[in-house]
């Protein structure tokens, strides 16, 4: 008899909410289906680094990073250099990203986090856990964290690969909210349905129906995050006649409901706080006037 494969454990994340407005409550639900999450205590967050079980990842969530929060990150790195750090931030810049990676941050994510980027991160996190859990003597292979090419480069490369499918892809990108028939798209490109389906998957990496669904879900996510259009109306706009089917499809694609997605784009208003005296090292990135955090180590 074959032994049953041991189910993959969920990574344990120690989450530091440095937003100053409780925004972690809106961000964490997107990860809870795939991870165990322990929210760091605002007064004793550094002490929790020594608790068992030790976390697989330290997540520091910012709204507008300031000197207090970034110095805390450096202190965490000094106390627990073996624990990887993910930095999540709403406000971001090239200078801040460069500083983060020079400080030894494992991953730098900008909020709100698109579904595809979240899936890529979770996959990398899963591979990191497999690496750490490998028994002694077993050769450990580092996770393959190959990032997507920058948009400007990727589009130039894909333009050539998609040339035979240009008419269909152009039509889908303009009419994905409508009912689109694969056979009609094959005829538009002068191909049989079988050849079109095979070439489409080879070129785009996913099947025709999945491509259309991805376009709809990404557009729906954009509307939910950046507009006040009711959830049911967003579904209708994306071609879903049944609101419950839209909600199920959205949850299946992103891992959380449309309502949770909407909340991710609406952090709570930050309470007024007294301006703190500057304590930043000159190595920290430039801090804008008025940026602040409620976290205290």
TrEMBL record:
<keyword id="KW-0238">DNA-binding</keyword>
<dbReference type="GO" id="GO:0000160">
    <property type="term" value="P:phosphorelay signal transduction system"/>
</dbReference>
<feature type="domain" description="HTH araC/xylS-type">
    <location>
        <begin position="166"/>
        <end position="264"/>
    </location>
</feature>
<protein>
    <submittedName>
        <fullName>AraC-type DNA-binding protein</fullName>
    </submittedName>
</protein>
<dbReference type="GO" id="GO:0003700">
    <property type="term" value="F:DNA-binding transcription factor activity"/>
</dbReference>
<keyword id="KW-0804">Transcription</keyword>
<dbReference type="InterPro" id="IPR009057">
    <property type="entry name" value="Homeodomain-like_sf"/>
</dbReference>
<keyword id="KW-0805">Transcription regulation</keyword>
<dbReference type="InterPro" id="IPR018060">
    <property type="entry name" value="HTH_AraC"/>
</dbReference>
<feature type="region of interest" description="Disordered">
    <location>
        <begin position="271"/>
        <end position="297"/>
    </location>
</feature>
<dbReference type="Pfam" id="PF00072">
    <property type="entry name" value="Response_reg"/>
</dbReference>
<dbReference type="InterPro" id="IPR020449">
    <property type="entry name" value="Tscrpt_reg_AraC-type_HTH"/>
</dbReference>
<dbReference type="GO" id="GO:0009893">
    <property type="term" value="P:positive regulation of metabolic process"/>
</dbReference>
<dbReference type="GO" id="GO:0043565">
    <property type="term" value="F:sequence-specific DNA binding"/>
</dbReference>
<dbReference type="Pfam" id="PF12833">
    <property type="entry name" value="HTH_18"/>
</dbReference>
<dbReference type="InterPro" id="IPR011006">
    <property type="entry name" value="CheY-like_superfamily"/>
</dbReference>
<dbReference type="InterPro" id="IPR001789">
    <property type="entry name" value="Sig_transdc_resp-reg_receiver"/>
</dbReference>
<dbReference type="InterPro" id="IPR018062">
    <property type="entry name" value="HTH_AraC-typ_CS"/>
</dbReference>
